[in-house]
Amino acid sequence: MYFTDRGIEELTERRGEEQVSVEWLADRLRAFVDQNPAFEDAVERLASFLARDDSDDLED
C-alpha cells in the first residue's frame, strides 16, 4: 500500500456519499497549491490526468 492510499481512503470515508462538481474540485486543488506550492507539479499532473477522456487513458 502506498502512503497516498491512506489519504484516498480518508477521502472516501469522509466524502464518499457526496457529489461534487469539477469546479469545486478545481477550486480545492488551487487552494491546496496556494498553501503548498512545492506540490504544484504533482497537482498539475493530477489535474491533467483527470482532464483526459477515459478513452485517452487506454491509448497510453
Automatic annotation (TrEMBL):
<dbReference type="Pfam" id="PF19599">
    <property type="entry name" value="DUF6104"/>
</dbReference>
<protein>
    <submittedName>
        <fullName>Uncharacterized protein</fullName>
    </submittedName>
</protein>
<dbReference type="InterPro" id="IPR046086">
    <property type="entry name" value="DUF6104"/>
</dbReference>
